[in-house]
Amino acid sequence: MKLLRFLIAGIFFGIIMSKSEAISWFRIHEMFRFESFHMYGIIGVAVIMGIIIIAFMKKTKVKTLRDTFVSYTPMKLNLKRHLIAGSIFGMGWALMGACPGPMFVMLGHGFWIFLLVLFSATMGTYTYGAIRHKLPH
Amino acid sequence: MELMTNPQAWIDFIRQPWHWAVSGVAISAILFVMTWMGRSFGMSTAFKSFCNIAGAGKKYEFFNFDLKNEYWRLAFAAGTVGGGFIAATFLASPEAPAISEATIAHLQNDWGMSYPQGHGLLPDVFNFGNIKGVLLAIVGGFLVGFGARYGDGCTSGHAISGLSHLQLPSLITVIGFFIGGLTMTWLILPLFFS
User: Fold this and answer.
1) Residue B192: CB partners within 8 Å, gap ≥ 6?
2) Sign of the CA dihedral running A84, A89, A90, A96
3) What is the pLDDT of residues B44-74, one digit of tens each?
4) What is the largest CA-CA distance in chain A?
5) DSSP 8-state symbol, B61
6) Cβ B91–A19 below 8 Å, yes or no?
7) Is any Cβ of chain B less than 8 angstroms from the Cβ of A134?
């Protein structure tokens, strides 16, 4: 039963990603060409609202359904790691026009090539797991 | 008023293209729901679970964890596929995304790519019948899967969740997204498409 609510949340997220057009390769391409405000508007509003929502949840000490407080485990700051990792991710994002969420959503739209993309992303993750001790962290 | 009583009016209401501000608020609502349910908002860790399912935990400690703790994320990922199907089947806008004239002109003039194609969601080149498209899909997926895990998060985890928690590492990662994205868009993609 607990899984059902995550499934439902996922369904809503899939619909939202579709209707926001953030799943469109063309929208991502346009964003990286700075030719439209659309994607910046979406991300900007989501982040500003997110900051307000999270701050409010922390301030009011709201309990989550798992009986915890809202918190975030900070990541160790490593400029090199985050810039390199981000750049690698960004190249894939601009190439396929899809980050991980939209990869799943596009599969739902019937673009079967994303079966291959999801498999390949899993292989990328596997490769990271295999060579992570050699990378700066 | 009609919205109250007529289900079809609801569907038509949702079907129309959404303003970016509406989409932004809707995404933050997902962030709220996931946070309220006591979980983080992150998609890319699903790939790590796939590795675990395939048995990578026996080989690398990194993939050795109890999958039960990740069932919620897999349920969420399965939901997004379903959401995509519902959106495509019942809620699709009548027209392709209204991308800018400048982008349409660039695609046509520089790359000979007409717009719209693939319902305005994906260039036709990305299909199993096109060897170039298949190779690019393999490379693109690999870069996303590798980069997301190395940076410990993707667009949902860093750009939305991390920034909402005011995390500096997330901001730097997002800057990285743009360094890579701009490099790909302006320097590398033209090699394949022009």
Assistant:
1) B132, B136
2) positive
3) 999 999 999 999 999 999 999 999 999 999 9
4) 45
5) G
6) yes
7) no
The model carries a pTM of 0.96
Which residue of B24, B60, B91 is in closest CB contact with A129? B60
**Backbone dihedral region for residue B42 (phi beyond 0: left; psi -120 to 50: alpha; all else: beta):** beta
**Any CB–CB contact under 8 A between A56 and chain B?**
no
Report the chain A residue with the minimal C-alpha distance to residue B17: A19
Percent of chain B residues past pLDDT 90, beyond the cut = 91
Tens digits of residue pLDDT in B155-174 = 999 999 999 999 999 999 99
CB contact under 8 A, A29 and B100: no
Domain boundaries, chain A: 1-73, 75-137
3-state secondary structure of A93: helix
d(CA B155, CA A10): 16
Q: Do residue A10 and residue B78 have CB atoms under 8 angstroms apart?
A: yes
